[in-house]
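Risk register update: the risk of archive-format incompatibility is retired. Evidence:
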Amino acid sequence: MTRVLVVEDEPQLVRALEINLKARKYEVDAAPDGGTALRLAAVRHPDVVLLDLGLPDMDGIDVIKGLRGWSRVPILVVSARRTSDEKVEALDAGADDYITKPFSMDELLARLRAASRRTEAVPPTEDSVTVTTDNFTVDLLAKKVKRGGRDVRLTPTEWHLLEVLIHHRGRLVTQKQLLQEVWGPTYSTQANYLRVYMAQLRRKLEADPSHPRYLITAPGMGYRFEM
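Archived output:
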């Protein structure tokens, strides 16, 4: 069973989420504030976190940063904050997806399923469990990246995107294919997701993110991973 941690201080919304998630066989824990959320996450080890940013004791961005200090659990932000800057701030902090209030339960459940899928293991190719470049090393089996001898912390979405590109290395992967494989079929036109996450990967892996050597853009078409 998939365990979901709901971090939300509106009791009515928490109740609605609990009813809908439990009806679909999810296990649900609920936290009304950030401190409780971080404690529950450490004890219960959720598979996905649904996080409101406007919490009574701390900003949700700080909760994301706290979780990312030790966990790669998928984090789906559910917030009334709508500006692009606020969304990018949450994604940069380590969130995997963002949905604005009010939302349809069907859309939330679809994004929750997509977040859950991204944590599932993808079998590595037989000929290359480890990919080594001059800048970084990717261990596909252990799902780890090292750069300069140090671990590089990737979010589950960043990892999935990198993994898809590596499995197709040397070949162009279209924007639509990447969006469908990483986010699901309902995201096939959301090119802005790709731009944000590719920029994050380049900042973490490329020596010069503005002139990438490995994560290459084919303008108007897609991306490819070059060795």
